[in-house]
Amino acid sequence: AQSVTQLDSHVSVSEGTPVLLRCNYSSSYSPSLFWYVQHPNKGLQLLLKYTSAATLVKGINGFEAEFKKSETSFHLTKPSAHMSDAAEYFCVVINGGYQKVTFGTGTKLQVIP
Amino acid sequence: DGGITQSPKYLFRKEGQNVTLSCEQNLNHDAMYWYRQDPGQGLRLIYYSQIVNDFQKGDIAEGYSVSREKKESFPLTVTSAQKNPTAFYLCASSILIDRQGNQPQHFGDGTRLSIL
User: Fold this and answer.
1) B115 CB contacts (<8 Å, ≥6 apart)?
2) Contacts of A104 in chain B (CB under 8 A)
3) How far is CA A57 from CA A41, A50, A66, B17, in A?
4) When comparing pLDDT for B109 and A1, which is higher?
5) Closest by CA position to A72, among listed A19, A30, A18
6) What is the mean pLDDT of each run of 10 residues along chain A (113 residues)?
7) B87-94 and B111-115: which strand pairing?
8) Do B94 and A41 touch (CB under 8 A)?
9) CB B32 within 8 A of CB B74
10) Residue contact A34–B104, C-beta within 8 A
C-alpha cells in the first residue's frame, strides 16, 4: 500500500519567517518523492524531487526538503517566506515501474505581510 | 518552449451533453494522465496512457472516456453519465521510468468545467 499524509491543511506565516510544510508517506518500495506548488487556477509546478540520491534536496525559489527514511517524512522548508510563496503545496510519491502516483491532499500556505 | 497545453480554460456543460477537453504536449513524453481536482481532495486519477492506442482506467473513470491516437494528444470526454462533473481538470505527462528512477509529471494549466 502507498499513501501520503500532509499533516496541515493550512499554514500561516509572516513574511520573512521560516516555512515548514510537513509530509509523511508510506510505501512498500523505495519511493521517489516530489513537492509541487499550485497557484490559483493554474497547474502544478514541480518544486523539487527526491529519487534516492542525496537526502537533502534543493529546489526552486529557495525551497528544500529532507528525506528521512527512519521517520518516513519529506518535509518542505524555506528559510524566509515571501509574499509570492502564498499558494497550495502538494507532496507526491511515485512507486514502481508502472508509475503508481499518490498525491497528498495539499497544504495551503498563507503569507502575512 | 516545450510544455502542455490544455484548452479551453473554462468550459460549461448543459444537462445531457458530452464535452471534450483538449490536452496537447510537445515534450515527447510517452505517458499522459488526466486528473480531477476538487477542493480539499487533492488530485484523483481519471485515466492514463503509457503508449499510443492504449490507456488504462484510474481511480474515478466512470462517466469519462479518452483516446490516444497520437503521442502528443490525449483528449478527455466528460459524458452525460458523469453526474457531478463540476471540477478543475488537469492533464499531465511524463517520461516513463528510466535508469534514474521515477520521473516527475509535468502539468498543464487546467480546464475548469461547470454545469449550466
Assistant:
1) B12, B13, B14, B15, B85, B86
2) 42
3) 27, 6, 6, 47
4) B109
5) A30
6) 91 98 88 92 92 86 94 96 97 74 93 96
7) antiparallel
8) no
9) yes
10) yes
